[in-house]
Design a protein that fits this description.
alpha+beta; Protein Transport Mog1p, Chain A; seven-stranded antiparallel sheet; six-stranded mixed sheet; 18 helices; elongated; disordered N terminus
Length: 469
């Protein structure tokens, strides 16, 4: 998808998946053959007609023998573009076969140089980064000690999303963009092309991109994360099915290339580990979700999930809860008003968000267990020129679930955030750090309220306005 680099997480996933497949199939000698078809190619300067082809249309359905519309950079050799176009045509057919759906219209594939691709990705990302929002985000992440005092969030995001990538699908234009500087696509790049073609194919059928953008615009971030996990999980799962059908030698070449790309990634050393973990969610957890759907109901179950969409990261992490129709417990929106403060965001944090939040202060198993009983939540972030306030209202599936998460948050505040000893405050606990930071948590039964603030006065006011759900 646009803005999501396929290079880092897909490289890691492909590397390990291919090695596992090769180990299982090491005794199998298999080959695949495909007919070469040369599509039409278009550059910014001129339009050229390749070998004449015919396209037939099935009455009441999509055209048969779909070929991509290939648009090429002026910087590329036309002979290379023609050869790449033939390979892309084969990959379109293989994508349709592996995903079990036909393209409804010819996908547009832009082939540009690696330098142009990197510049385009960075330009797109830079346009999305608002300096004022980055400032609030930075202060919030520093409050949770997910960023250090000197960390530059803009630079980290550019490093994370702006590395040279193999390709991406632009849902706004319906266009797929890949880098092409050689006459033949590498095995790894072919698999990435299939991944991105699956995005283009499923978007034609299920029209998910506009809905996903609407979710983001309306601050429905938990829903957006769940939908993204379905989208990326779909593409990743069937990408691996494509890989599984390749000859073993090609699988091993792909793993070698993926390993090299993964090792060369600067994000491995420059970006905090929690960012990489968060980036992995739609690919790894999404793939697991889709795999369970396929095991239970075949490809048709994946298609149906685009209509009966997963609404929370909880059901992505626990597909059985999706199958059971589990819904979020109602939690009233947090609606704190503080003099001199503006509301930055009001949304739902979700089970995955809580796992990531606790991941720096608790062992992985404890973070997973503490977040596992998520029933529902709402949160709000407020800010002024100097300070930021985080307010969370939470409801667990049970009283024990609420207790576990509350205990994990108290431990995070006391130990990871180093806010000292908490003091009993009514039925809750309050922390007043020497540097002015404030935290408060109060639980009743299966619900609690939690406030963390850089300013004690604002934090106390927020806590006083909130009610336990």
């Amino acid at each position: 998808m646009r803005g999501i680099p396929t290079n880092l997480r897909l490289a890691a996933a492909v590397m390990f998946a291919v090695l596992a497949l090769a180990a299982c199939d090491s005794g199998t000698d298999s080959t695949t053959t495909t007919d070469s078809v040369t599509p039409g190619t278009t550059s910014a300067a001129e339009t050229t007609t390749a070998a004449e082809t015919t396209t037939t249309t099935v009455e009441g359905g999509p055209p048969a023998d779909i070929e991509p519309i290939v648009v090429a950079s002026d910087e590329l050799d036309p002979e290379i573009v023609e050869r790449l176009g033939a390979q892309l045509t084969e990959l379109v057919a293989e994508t349709e076969e592996v995903r079990g759906l036909p393209f409804l219209a010819s996908p547009t594939i832009s082939i540009i140089t690696p330098a142009e691709l990197e510049a385009r990705v960075r330009e797109d990302i830079a346009e999305e980064l608002d300096p004022d929002e980055l400032d609030v985000e930075t202060r919030l992440l520093q409050l949770f000690r997910l960023l250090g005092p000197g960390d530059d969030l803009e630079r980290l995001l550019l490093d994370l999303y702006g590395e040279q990538v193999a390709g991406f699908y632009d849902g706004e234009t319906g266009e797929m963009v890949i880098a092409g500087n050689a006459a033949d696509l590498t095995p790894y790049t072919k698999s990435v092309v299939v991944h991105e073609l699956i995005h283009a194919l499923t978007d034609q059928h299920f029209l998910f991109h506009d809905e996903w953008v609407t979710m983001l615009d309306e601050e429905r971030y938990e829903e957006a994360a769940a939908l993204q996990a379905l989208i990326e999980g779909d593409a990743t799962y069937f990408q691996f099915i494509y890989i599984q059908e390749l000859p073993v030698a090609e699988q091993l070449a792909m793993a070698t290339e993926a390993l090299q790309l993964y090792q060369e990634s600067s994000a491995q050393t420059q970006v905090p580990s929690w960012m990489l973990t968060d980036l992995s969610f739609p690919y790894e957890s999404g793939q697991f979700f889709v795999e369970v759907l396929v095991d239970d109901g075949g490809i048709a179950a994946v298609d149906s999930a685009y209509t009966d969409r997963p609404l929370t990261t909880e059901v992505i992490l626990h597909p059985s809860r999706y199958a059971a129709g589990e819904r979020t417990l109602p939690v009233p929106p947090v609606a704190v008003e503080l003099e001199g403060y503006e509301s930055y965001v009001a949304s739902t944090y979700g089970e995955w968000g809580l796992q990531v939040l606790l991941g720096e202060s608790a062992a992985p198993g404890i973070a997973v267990q503490a977040a596992n009983g998520w029933g529902g939540d709402t949160y709000q972030v407020l800010y002024d020129d100097d300070d930021v306030v985080f307010a969370l209202s939470y409801k667990g599936d049970s009283e024990e679930d609420a207790f576990e998460l509350a205990d994990a948050l108290i431990t995070m505040v006391a130990e990871h955030l180093e806010m000292g000893e908490g003091l009993a405050d009514g039925g809750g606990i309050t922390f007043n750090a020497e540097d002015g930071r404030y935290a408060h948590l109060d639980r009743i039964g299966d619900g609690f309220k939690f406030v963390l603030s850089t300013d004690a006065s604002a934090g106390r006011t927020a806590a006083d306005q909130m009610r336990i759900p």
